[in-house]
Design goal:
194 residues, 4 strands, single chain
Length: 194
Amino acid sequence: DWSSDVCSSDLNGFLIGYAGLPPFIATFGMMGIGAGLAFALTPGSIGGFFPPFEFFVIGRIAGIPVPVVIIIVFTFIFHYILKKTVYGVRVLAIGGSELSSKLAGIEVRKYKFSVYLLNGCLAALAAIILSARITSSYPGIGMVFVLHAIASSVIVCARLFSGFGSFVGAFGGVPVISMIHNLFIILSVYPFLQ
């Protein structure tokens, strides 16, 4: 499943950056295609991972669970990239106005492609952690988290149609969505109504 995340993001980057497809259409279309291919090409659920693989969930670094360490490290890295590097400033500029970015001499296609490629790598890492957490892999298991990820980003800081926002702010939306989800569980709200 993780390899399909990277491959589909490569294709998304090409379709959006070079072919000019709208990002929303390309990403959700590829999500459907990727899930369909994963279901068609795999035997279904895969389990029996090697014990070192489970380190991603049960392991600790300085007493802190590995997934928390990964989140903290990537939060600092991407906050720095977005706020302190030319790459980050250009990515935010493209998100704010592609036309202005082109007029300023930024290679918009190249940057858009790189962002989708990076997104695919991070999605693959998330898939590895999720697979380690449930000690199995099943095509489409992460589909339920798509809207949670979008809501977590948008609820706090990110704007869907501008280049403003921050990685730290998007990270701050995760507890909000998690609290709402946990509240539904505590109140015994039927899962399909949640």
